[in-house]
From TrEMBL:
InterPro entries: Bact_OuterMem_StrucFunc (IPR050330), OMP/PagP_B-barrel (IPR011250), OMP_bac (IPR006664), OmpA-like (IPR006665), OmpA-like_sf (IPR036737), TSP_type-3_rpt (IPR028974). This is OOP family OmpA-OmpF porin. It is found in: Cell outer membrane. It is a multi-pass membrane protein. Pfam families: OmpA (PF00691). One of its GO terms (cellular component) is pore complex. One of its GO terms (molecular function) is porin activity. Keywords: Cell outer membrane, Ion transport, Membrane, Porin, Signal, Transmembrane, Transmembrane beta strand, Transport. Residues 330-443 form the OmpA-like domain. It comes from Pedobacter cryoconitis. GO terms for biological process: monoatomic ion transport. Residues 1-23 form the signal peptide. Transmembrane segments: none annotated.
Length: 443
């Protein structure tokens, strides 16, 4: 009953280890430097080799049988690589273990032999890869490894012995036993997905009757094998067990250092270029006080007064005004025209008697280019509106006449003030007469 339970537990553990055998990571491998890398972590192996009861740990008499006899065995495994240097594998083994010349009471029995048939054998082992500490190569070609684990097998021993009860002839029948496999070997990487596997395993049995002879010590046997390991997963990705993280870090650091040097070199070149351009932009080649970058009128002559954009200031053309000198004779001409100036009653019509003196004023304006201001005034008789209009009309009438005689209209100003600027009292007829006037002002 206990044997069945133990066997069931072992089978379930092996099934659990291999449930995700073909569930490989299909995420595309990336060539970006610090992105997550994908590896093949699952693999299967097939091997064949020699089984013998001889081991390096046998005593001087070589165990229960002194003469080993090699025989063929075969096996396989499924492995999950957890870390670059560590994986877990499930091993399977079958074959026969043979030996000659039994050792009985210190004596060698001739014509005796044993043959143990391994019906099935399953073990779970840790695989320690010790070569992926390479400093220079990310993918190692030669990968030594060590293995150690625990297993369970079913085997049957047949003995052919003579003359001793300790070595009875016959078969022990099939029995199931625990064993501890300890091994070493190396793998040669043929490609990213295929390795040549050469190994040697010593199996320490937890029974002293593996070879059909009961003795004081538990039995042992070895398996020297050669085989092929095939990695499962996305084609083109490397196996994790062949990957040296140290070499990868060194390579990535070297690449990053080279890239930083290139970036620094480029940055220095850009800095020098920008510095040169800044000196060029902020220089002042024409010396006008405006930097070249903002100078919209480069090349201005020295000592030129410029504006904020570096262009010469446009100074207004100097206007030279001649000083106007009004002589007493000129004023006499104007005063005479004022005294002789007459209008029709209540109108702005100039009477003909005034033309002669107005003509002299017009000639004066043309000759000396004088300016003339005409200011019309009335007394307070009538409404304000009528008086303002009448004073304005009379001043305009005089302007019109002078212009008709050749005077410059732009130099004559005509304004009407009505009764607002009297020079005498409007209470008397004489005063009102004085207030009804047109003033001439030369300038």
């Amino acid at each position: 009953m206990n044997s069945r339970i133990t066997k069931s537990v072992l089978v379930l553990s092996l099934v659990g280890l291999s449930t995700s055998l073909f569930a490989q990571d299909v995420t595309p491998d990336t060539t970006k430097r610090f992105d997550k890398k994908n590896f093949r972590t699952w693999s299967i192996g097939l091997n064949g080799g020699m089984l013998t009861h001889y081991t390096p740990f046998n005593n001087r008499s070589n165990g229960d049988f002194s003469t080993p006899q090699e025989s063929w065995g075969y096996g396989g495994y499924i492995k999950k690589q957890i870390l670059p240097g560590f994986g877990i594998q499930a091993d399977f083994l079958a074959g026969k273990v043979k030996g000659l010349r039994a050792n009985v009471d210190g004596n060698t029995q001739q014509n005796t032999s044993f043959e143990t048939r391994i019906d099935w054998s399953a073990a779970v082992s840790g695989n320690f890869t010790i070569a992926n500490m390479s400093l220079n190569h990310k993918r190692t070609v030669l990968s030594p490894y060590l293995t150690a684990g625990a297993g369970y097998m079913s085997s049957s021993a047949n003995t052919n012995a003579v003359g001793s009860a300790a070595t009875p002839a016959g078969s022990t029948g099939y029995g199931e036993h625990w064993f501890i496999p300890v091994g070493a070997g190396f793998k040669v990487g043929l490609s990213k997905g295929v390795n040549l596997d050469l190994g040697y395993t010593v199996n320490f049995m937890k029974t002293n009757n593996f070879d059909g002879v009961q003795s004081a010590a538990n039995d042992k046997f070895t398996y020297a094998h050669a085989g092929v390991e095939i990695a499962l997963g996305k084609r083109g990705t490397s196996q994790l067990q062949n990957f040296s993280a140290i070499a990868a870090v060194r390579e990535e650091s070297a690449a990053e250092s080279a890239e930083l040097r290139r970036a620094l070199s480029t940055s220095e070149q850009n800095r020098l270029r920008d510095q040169e351009q800044y000196a060029k932009d902020m220089g002042d080649e024409d010396g006008d006080g405006v930097a070249n970058k903002f100078d919209k009128c480069p090349g201005t002559p020295p000592n030129t007064v410029v504006d904020g954009s570096g262009c010469p200031l446009k100074t207004p053309k100097q206007i030279i005004k001649e000083k106007v000198i009004v002589t007493a004779e000129d004023r006499k001409v104007v005063d005479e025209a004022i005294r002789n100036l007459e209008f029709d009653l209540g109108k702005s019509t100039i009477r003909a008697t005034s033309y002669n003196t107005l003509n002299r004023v017009a000639a004066l304006l043309v000759e000396k280019n004088f300016s003339l201001k005409l200011a019309g005034h009335t007394d307070n008789t009538g409404s304000m509106a009528i008086n303002l209009r009448l004073s304005k009309d009379r001043a305009e009438a005089i302007k019109t006449y002078l212009v008709s005689q050749g005077a410059n209209a732009s130099r004559i100003e005509a304004t009407g003030y009505g009764p607002n600027q009297p020079i005498a009292s409007n209470k008397t007829a004489a005063g009102r007469q004085k207030n009804r006037r047109v003033e001439f002002s030369l300038f």
